[in-house]
């Protein structure tokens, strides 16, 4: 797997969340993802960027365009140094929320992605990686 584009963006404000959405859409379009797949990765990116800001106190997202011999795709990795997630299984349950929302952020992002990985350590932060393939 070769990363042909690799960019890291800060997530420190609501304006940054909008910029992450725009960058994810541009990258998905450049990689040739369908409109449906573009919408899925942008929606997931929006949820995860908002979580990074609201629950992690801000952080970064790394956007990568991926090419292999057989497929093209987009990988986004969100990282923060926030409080961490005490119970990942619970946090990935539809309807579970600590922020008063619908509780579909993490579980929704997982459903919208072809690949989903999450790592969190209490007091150290959280890293979420999603990928969408053409």
Can you walk through the features of this model?
Helices cover 36% and strands 33% of the residues. Strands 1-2-3-5-4 form a five-stranded antiparallel beta sheet, covered by helices on one side. It is globular, with a radius of gyration of 14 Å. Helix 1 (14-30) packs antiparallel against helix 2 (35-54) and helix 2 packs antiparallel against helix 4. It has one domain (2-133): Histidine kinase-like ATPase, C-terminal domain (Heat Shock Protein 90), CATH 3.30.565.10. It has four helices and five strands; from the N terminus they run βααββααββ. A hairpin with a 4-residue loop joins strand 2 (59-67) and strand 3. The model has no long low-confidence stretch (mean pLDDT 91). The chain has 134 residues and is an alpha+beta fold. The protein has helices spanning 14-30, 35-54, 88-91, 105-111; strands at residues 2-11, 59-67, 72-80, 115-121, 125-133. It starts with a strand and ends with a strand.
Helix content: 25-40%
* Global mean pLDDT: 91
Structural class: alpha+beta
Unreliable stretches covering 5 or more consecutive residues: none
Number of structural units classed as domains: 1
| DSSP, total strands | 5
CATH-derived architecture? 2-Layer Sandwich
Tertiary shape: globular
- Compute the number of helices: 4
The helix/strand series, from N terminus to C terminus, equals EHHEEHHEE
User: Which homologous superfamily in CATH is the superfamily?
Assistant: Histidine kinase-like ATPase, C-terminal domain
What is the CA-based Rg, rounded? Answer: 14 Å
Q: What composes the largest sheet? A: 5 strands, antiparallel
Placed side by side, the strands forming the largest sheet appear as 1-2-3-5-4
CATH topology: Heat Shock Protein 90
User: In percent, how much strand structure appears in the residues?
Assistant: 25-35%
CATH top level assignment: Alpha Beta
| N-C termini distance | 14 Å
